[in-house]
Design a protein that fits this description.
heterotrimer, A alpha/beta, B alpha+beta, C alpha/beta, A: alpha/beta, Aspartate Aminotransferase, domain 1, seven-stranded mixed sheet, 15 helices, C: alpha/beta, Aspartate Aminotransferase, domain 2, 2 domains, four-stranded antiparallel sheet, 14 helices, 15 strands, globular, disordered C terminus
């Protein structure tokens, strides 16, 4: 699928002074309203007509892939279809425009949305409570580690400052640990790509704070002894944290809470169809077991029945008869993680998705995500190395190591060749323990026809790599630009346009 | 095959050391620059900083990776290669010459005994 | 539901995989299998979904009030062209542009966002956005700490209280000392103790916000930034109301080296507090410490200009525990909305908008302050679009009375500053009409004024 290659000059290079649009009445001159010394001399921005703005950005959009146009088998990203009903609900004016400082009584619907979602997530994942405060998954990880730190401080165990992280972990895990002043201990996976409870027993101790894991792990494999791993960590006095990036694999089937996890986060932009929007905004609820509820970020949404008693529902329930309030009075809370209460528009989207599915629907989502991933694996295992060739979950890894040795074609090159054929490349070079790694996650919203076409194209690219490697190494040739000189971008950073020097 | 000049000492972390009395010039080896790919930035210690042998004292950034610099010898930093700020490519082009990183006045000259000879380093990279 | 599989599809696929049933495929060990059904919503059709949200919307009555709320989230006119472009599927549903060849459009849009932020702040470089203003401040402080090696920061108490609270949350993790500068009788930061505070060089940065939480123009007076920099302390400027950048002196012009803030005012809905979009801009000296994503311009193999994510070796997916921040997502789509907004409004529209904001809030201040018992708390200090009004009695009581008249009068400052419990922060924007102001004034004039001992 060729992407248009037309030129798109910068918005600053078009436009003329005074070519203004008419969105507001004109205002008085600023120097009649404020002292001159407080004002800026000039505003070096262009004026573009609305048509030129529309053409500019529409053309930019045409030079970019999206789920709406192509298949994105990006491991660890869960690029599933973003249903449009979710956006329509988020755009209802009452919900779109409500101000965070509106009094609780005037925001009952917004609070109901947040509470309903939070209760549904708590039950779905086996946590006592979630906070919808964090703005993204990594942000939620940070919140979780701050909760752990506060918990141990209150318990009188401040010496606990080691975070154990398997060598397959996402990069955000150790980075978040460092932001909390924790040390990172990397645990080697066993030959089957899993965490060995006996290995874990060797590394836990009185300084263990948290073990951060995901299940299925980043190889797409279920950790069959996860409950044993949890027991080992708990016996040593540590907490278990679940990285929710792979939550799409297990809904309605098993729950992190039941595996022994005390803390977790979710990526609503993965599992719950929040649009990725080119890199954000995401949303990352952080979940806790009962003994950690007091430490959640503020504010927390409380529900009350008609008699004014606090509601203690363990999961979702109807809210027409409940009232809600924001609770800021939480002395043990780690504090707020961001300016206001949540990425609320995304909570609307996630709740709409939850309504569309219910428990049965979400269970089916996970089952079919696993089906699609295994189907691809089973269909390409004869042409590319599958280091862990067994039933996987919602994603699996392949390795181009042998292909590279035979033909010089690497994982990177396979990815670029896929771009030419109208697919986004899979995740490459992660996790780090698999050389020339490709991580493939189709998600459940793709049809068998799409998967079959992908499989056929993938097999064809591998065959071409063997017969005529140059053809693969020069890809992509059908996209707006070819491979980019990243060295130059880093050595001579050009990160913005500069106005031409005056005079 | 990576270049391993005679007359230098080497570390397991792929740095080279050139001794001149009690002042050592330090850089990364040809093998290291080839593995890292195009170098885009080098973060060096400040002149006057005190270094502990084998401590992490700086960073080498390439487009896709970053690597700690573990100083092969300890002492006081007496010079750094300012040229790398604008020309990090020198590390790729001439790792043993223009691509040098810093000079350190050794606190303990016997530390050089902990380093590898060219032959030992060649063996190390051959088995990698 | 969004799964397209027919039972034939499923059968065929299971055969290829070599497993008898879906349940066999997804089986988990008994020890972790689900014990009882999860309590989640029922499964609904779209009509029923829309019906439920209509009821949630009906219970969210804030929109029926005349609102003077601001305090970090601002009501501005968003031309429909912003939504029309931002909701295009290629923009809405694309992933982070790691595969640059198929993301040129988005990468260019973010490059334009980076340029807009740099031009508006007067600084050299800006990143691809961060979560919001409060976390932008926390990340900016971390930059200063890394630049100086000092684990302390001095923050004006006129910086948004929620931003200071988030900074303290982060500071707890990083073991940073956070000290505060008081505000003065004029509603600006009180700098009288600054020189003494800088003397032992224990702060990585001094942080001020302009316009500050009280709406006051609080740029550092001439020479103060130099005094701070002479002690190798970084000057950080915070902007919570980005619209002010269209009118007020650019932060770089009064000595800011790292500018952090919130750009929700540019083309993004308030949406009960999120998602919004934070920005970080800095001088070139701080470039390598900037967290998050950066889009750069380079060329492709044919020499064609091309955009790409760059300087990624700083980021978490490569640096891991050595990363200066764990940040992964930016707020790309919100930054896109802001960029389209800035492009459509242009210099002229932004200037007009800023002027209307100042004009309306000045009108509000003058009319309300003319009422007996009411006063501008920091009279004489220039403000942008927010003003602190001292009311008779407690702010909470006045606000409750206003609510009875379908008016949300503003934020009760007693919530954040106990000494200001008789003050309301009132905001007016280009969407506030003179009629709205007059309704407010009428409602306030009907509040009985019990003569206070001190005026």
């Amino acid at each position: 699928m060729p992407l248009p290659a037309f030129d798109t000059p910068l918005i600053f290079e078009t436009g003329q002074d005074g070519r203004a649009n008419c969105y507001l009445p004109s205002g008085p001159a600023l120097d009649t309203l404020l002292p001159k010394h407080a004002l800026r001399d000039e505003l070096p921005l262009p004026d573009n007509s609305e048509l030129d703005v529309v053409r500019h950005f529409t053309r930019l959009s045409q030079k970019s892939f999206g789920i709406d146009t192509v298949f994105y088998p990006l491991g660890s990203c869960t690029m599933k279809y973003n249903p449009r009903i979710n956006d329509a609900m988020a755009n209802i004016p009452a919900l779109r425009d409500v101000h965070p400082f509106a009094p609780d009584h005037a925001a009952q619907g917004a609070l109901a949305v947040m509470w309903e979602l939070e209760r549904a997530l708590a039950s779905l994942f086996g946590m006592a409570a979630f906070s919808l405060n964090p703005a993204a998954g990594a942000h939620a990880e940070l919140a979780a580690l701050l909760i752990a730190k506060a918990y141990f401080k209150k318990k009188g165990e401040p010496q606990r400052n080691v975070v154990i992280v398997p060598d397959t972990a996402h990069g955000t895990n150790p980075a978040s640990a460092a932001m909390v002043g924790f040390k990172v201990l990397s645990l080697k996976s066993d030959a089957q790509g899993r965490v060995d409870p006996d290995e874990m027993r060797n590394v836990v101790g009185p300084d263990t704070a948290v073990c951060m894991m995901t299940n299925p792990n980043t190889l797409g494999l279920f950790e069959p002894r996860i409950h044993e791993v949890s027991d080992v960590v708990h016996e040593a006095g540590g907490l278990m944290y679940y990285d929710g990036a792979n939550a799409n694999a297990l809904m309605g089937n098993t729950r992190p809470g039941d595996m022994g996890f005390d803390l977790m986060h979710l990526n609503l932009h993965k599992t719950f169809t929040i649009p990725h929007g080119g890199g954000g905004a995401g949303a990352g609820p952080v979940g806790v077991a009962a003994h950690l509820i007091d430490f959640l970020p503020t504010p927390v949404v409380r529900a009350f029945d008609a008699d004014g008693n606090a509601n203690d529902a363990t999961g979702w329930r109807e809210t027409a008869d409940l009232t809600f309030a924001l609770d800021f009075d939480r002395p043990d809370s780690i504090g707020p993680m961001r300016s206001f209460w949540s990425n609320f528009a995304h909570m609307v989207r996630a709740l709409a998705y939850t309504y569309a599915n219910g428990a049965d629907g979400l269970t089916t989502v996970s089952k079919l995500a696993v089906l699609n991933a295994n189907y691809i694996r089973a269909s390409i295992r004869d042409v590319i190395d599958i280091p862990y060739d067994e039933i996987n979950r919602h994603e699996f890894v392949a390795s181009a190591q042998s292909l590279k040795r035979e033909t010089g074609v690497r994982a990177l090159d396979l990815g670029k060749a896929l771009l030419d054929r109208g697919y986004h490349a899979p995740t490459v070079y992660f996790p780090l323990i698999v050389p020339e790694c490709l991580m493939i996650e189709p998600t459940e919203t793709e049809s068998k026809e799409t998967l079959d076409a992908f499989i056929a194209d993938f097999r064809d690219i591998v065959a071409t790599a063997k017969s005529d490697p140059e053809k693969v190494l020069e890809t992509p040739v059908n996209t707006a630009v070819g491979r980019i000189d990243e060295t130059r971008a880093a050595r001579q950073p050009d990160l913005r346009w500069h106005p031409p020097a005056a005079g | 095959m990576a270049n391993v000049p005679a007359g230098l000492l080497y570390s397991k972390e792929h740095e080279w050391v050139k001794l001149d009395g009690d002042v050592a010039t330090v850089g990364i080896t040809d093998y290291a620059q080839a593995s890292l790919g195009d170098i885009v930035y080098v973060e060096l210690p400040r002149v006057g900083a005190g270094l502990t042998q084998f401590g992490s004292i700086g960073v080498v950034e390439s487009v896709k990776a970053v690597s700690d610099i573990f100083t092969p010898v300890g002492g006081e930093v007496v010079g750094i290669n300012d040229g790398l700020e604008n020309d990090p490519a020198a590390v790729n082009r001439d790792p043993y010459g223009d691509g040098w990183f810093y000079k350190v006045k050794l606190g303990d000259v016997s530390q050089t005994g902990d380093l590898l000879t060219p032959e030992q380093y060649e063996q190390l990279i051959a088995s990698a | 539901m969004y799964t397209p599989h027919t039972s034939r599809d499923i059968e065929a696929m299971l055969r290829v995989i070599g497993v008898g049933s879906l349940d066999d495929l997804v089986r988990v060990p008994d020890a972790v299998a689900l014990r009882h059904p999860v309590e989640v919503t029922p499964q609904l059709s779209e009509i029923e979904i829309a019906d439920r949200f209509a009821r949630h919307a009906a219970r969210t009555t804030a929109g029926g009030y005349t609102s003077f709320l601001g305090a970090g989230a601002y009501r501005h006119y968003v031309p429909p062209v912003v939504g029309a472009i931002a909701m295009r599927g290629e923009f809405l549903t694309s992933y982070t542009p790691y595969q640059a060849e198929v993301s040129q459009g988005y990468l260019q849009a973010i490059y334009e966002w980076q340029t807009y932020i740099a031009l508006l702040t007067g600084l050299d470089v800006a990143n691809a956005s961060v979560y919001d203003g409060a976390t932008a401040l926390a990340e900016g402080v971390i930059m200063a700490v890394n630049a100086t090696g000092r684990k302390g920061v001095l923050v004006s108490s006129a910086v948004h209280p929620n931003y200071r609270a988030v900074l303290r949350t982060y500071a707890e993790g990083l073991e940073l000392a956070v000290d505060e500068l008081p505000y003065g009788a004029d509603g600006r930061t009180d700098l009288s103790s600054l020189e003494a505070a800088l003397a032992d060089q224990r702060y990585a940065a001094v942080v001020v916000q302009s316009p500050n939480f009280f709406g006051a123009v609080d740029a550092l007076p001439a020479g103060v930034a130099d005094t701070i920099k002479a002690t190798k302390t970084v000057v950080i400027g915070v902007v919570a109301e980005a619209m002010s950048l269209a009118a007020l002196a650019a932060p770089a012009s009064w000595g800011v080296e790292i500018c952090v803030g919130e750009a929700q005012s540019f083309g993004n809905a308030i949406a009960y507090g999120g998602p919004h979009v934070g920005f970080i801009a800095a001088t070139t000296a701080h470039l390598r410490r900037i967290p998050g994503r950066l889009v750069g311009k380079s060329v492709d193999s044919a020499g064609k200009p091309a955009y790409v994510l760059t300087l990624q070796a700083r980021e978490q997916h490569i640096r891991r525990e050595k990363a200066t921040s764990n940040i992964c997502t930016n707020q790309a789509h919100c930054a896109l909305c802001a960029t389209v907004y800035l492009a459509a409004m242009g210099k002229t529209g932004l200037r007009d908008c800023a002027a209307l904001n100042v004009a309306r809030s000045n009108e509000l201040r003058d009319k309300v302050a003319a009422l007996p018992g009411f006063a501008a708390r920091f009279a004489g200090t220039p403000t942008f679009n927010e003003v602190v009004i001292r009311v008779p009695g407690r702010a909470a009581a006045v606000l409750a009375t206003l609510e009875e008249r379908q008016i949300l009068g503003g934020v009760d400052l007693g919530r954040f500053y106990p000494e200001l419990e008789d003050c309301i922060l009132m905001t007016a924007t280009e969407l506030t009409s003179s009629a709205d102001v007059d309704r407010l004034v009428t409602a306030l004039s009907e509040i009985p004024v019990r003569a206070a001992a001190s005026v």
